[in-house]
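Possible regression after last week's pipeline update?

I re-ran a chain I had predicted before the update to compare outputs. Posting the input and the new output here so someone can diff against the archived version. Not blocking, just want to make sure nothing changed silently.
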Amino acid sequence: MTAVDTSEMTTAEAVEAVCAVASKRPVSEPDATKTRVAVLMSGGVDSSATAMLMIKAGYEVVGVTGWLIKSGSRCCDTGMVDAARVCEQLGIEHHAVDLRELFKSEIIDQFHQSYARAKTPLPCSVCNTLIKWGALLRYSQKILKARYIATGHYGRVVETEDGFRLARAKDPKKDQSYVLWGLTMEQLKSTLLPLGEYGKDEIRAIAEGGGLVTANKPDSQDLCFIPRGTTTQQYLGNFLQVETGPIVHTVNGEMLGQHQGTFNYTIGQRKGIGIAYHEPLYVTSIDPDTRTVYVGPPEALLRKELTASAANWLMETPPVESFEGLAKIRYNSKAEPATIYPLPDAQIRVVFHEPQPAITPGQVLGIYDLTDTYMLGGGWID
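New output (post-update):
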């Protein structure tokens, strides 16, 4: 594979450049009697089982893996190899697409910059939007001539009276609809998510039954580009300059100490603040301009409102008036009742019925319907 330098390109230009290089490789013609599906394969058990399920469902399947990291990652060291091994077991083609420069500029560099601006990013969500449903979807359709892509995410694409919808997985413990909020309706209609009908134990049993080499591979728990044995703060310390500043009590204004870089803190953090106090303190806010970290008691974390930018609506007709829904502010939190206000310039205002703790800039706002079944849209929390 030949690397494509995408550092000076827009995302759209970078995707086209990658496809232009990839188009020079041999690709088989689609089987006219079947629908071709490109399965995005990371080398884990979920995407491996997805490929097997798509074959059993009668599709013509090809495997596609993005080469994302130059070296030292937690997954790319073995991921491409394992994906290729599974494709060989299943008797299907495997394509590796060099996206290292795009991943660096759009995911890794942005991760550093978000922390520098006192925002706590969710890079997996960005990767889904720009890499999987951006570059790899484009590659699969343009180069591989695939009608659909399929992934190992736990969610469901369903067709309702109101059109296509992104629904929660049937297993609520594995549901990943929250990190798919950024898909467009066109992308959603080109997507198959077979794992949404299963639990994790069922998927491992399917993989074991098929003798897949990844059947017992552990799940990845951390960010793929942070080296093994390195914390997020240790990793960021290699890229961000340490600028000290005050730690201030948000209620009484008392200066409690000095911090060693705002990137070492995130909203809601309790451990590792580095100061002694007569009651538990939590990080309540961070001001990157004055390099101030504010701390306070747990009640100081509560907020009833938020605004979000870069709004995306997973609805055939996006809302223009306020409505009642459920809003989710972090991956492991519940979706809570709220009034949703669509605003101009792709913004959203949310007013919760009850105050919520640790609303964190840089994280994703996910909006669900009142039955907590369908993801309606979302944005980046300001």
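Follow-up from reviewer: compared with the archived run. DSSP finds eight helices and 17 strands in the chain. Marking as no regression found.
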